[in-house]
Amino acid sequence: MKNPTLPHHEVVVVGGGQAGLSISHGLKAEGIEHVVFEKHRAMHVWRTQRWDNFCLVTPNWQCALPGHPYRGDDPHGFMKREEIVQYLDAFRAHVDAPLREGVAVELVKPLPEGGFLVRSSEGECTAQQVVVASGGYHEPIVPRLAERLPAQVVQLHSAQYRNAAQLPPGKVLVVGSGQSGAQIAEDLHLAGREVVLAVGDAPRCARFYRGRDVVDWLADMGYYEMPVGQHPLREGVRDNTNHYVTGRDGGRDIDLRRFAIEGMQLYGALTGLDVDGATLRFAPRLREVLDQADRTYNGINASIDRYIDEQRLQAPPASVYEPVWQPAEERETLSLTGAGITSVLWCIGFAPDFRWLDAPVFNGRGHPVHDRGITRVPGLYFIGLPWLHTWGSGRFSGVARDAAFVVQRVTELRSTKVRTTVAPNALVDLAVV
């Protein structure tokens, strides 16, 4: 497999975020030679694609990267952006990975004789195995209708948003109500900006219920241990939008209905732009999506109620959320100029971009097909994707377990390669050659 004219590595890890460094941690423990290529700087996304008031939506105790659990004095709090970066920088120092920053991987391709060709911005090499740890959120999604909005309207993706002062005076249209959209809408609202929110199908959940953080209850109930194959939606859960909630100011619910009472204007999902280029169109489903989000909210709480009853636990009384506001009508159009909208924030997510990976491991939508990160191509793995194995796979809470599993498979395949390249009964060092 080796090309004597090219540098060779036992394992190439693509991506220097928490997933890639978690793999490096495990490979070092096994004594497996490897290199980690990072296109930018380690933990690039956490440094550059989070707004000023960003904080975790899961409690700090869930930060459990391998060999680096949260050790602060506020396990049930929510680290802010700078604290998260400090935690991750300490993890980087702890791992001390063979990391090459500023190296963009341009091609990974299986070789006919086994192993892989890896082409990067610093040249070519070969690898016995490759772990893709670059995540699944690469290309900011902005719809084509954005091209037709008036030139004077400032447009940003959520990855570019930092704070309210970044935007010109006037109303702000936030498109999307997932975790980023709901929290950015709240950030603008608390800053005194007039916000129009195009509400999508994202569900919501309570921050605290019956005396505890909902995350604590769900952890006790085993939800975070549930593998994707046992989830009612099976692999379909990977396409789900995350529940909106916040850890801001110690944590609280995000209730879009209450925002409406306080002056935020809610519409259904944005569906189009009239030919005049100035009139937006929205789906007449605002009441429906708000009601569905509340059903999810109450359904999660009801599952906690059942758990408390089954375990005969002492807890404050149960409750059911009742809507504090209902839309008087379904508004389907909005004039940008008439409403005074000067900014649009696109909070509708990211698309994967694995064009550099030339291997038959993708479905029709460009998502990798795998079983717990293991692909059909021997020696090619993924890590750090949402629901790779459990809910925590794309978060600080579950990546350590995923990394340990992938490293185990790397080690097993490496041992197999060793056995198949050594003559029977030969008294030699069993190092991969």
UniProtKB/TrEMBL annotation:
PANTHER family: FLAVIN-BINDING MONOOXYGENASE-LIKE PROTEIN (AFU_ORTHOLOGUE AFUA_4G09220) (PTHR43539), FLAVIN-CONTAINING MONOOXYGENASE (PTHR43539:SF78). It holds the Pfam family Pyr_redox_3. It comes from the Bacteria. Coiled coil: none annotated. It comes from Piscinibacter gummiphilus. InterPro entries: Auxin_biosynth/cation_transpt, CHP04046_FMN-dependent, FAD/NAD-bd_sf. This is MSMEG_0569 family flavin-dependent oxidoreductase. Keywords: Oxidoreductase. The keyword tRNA-binding does not apply.
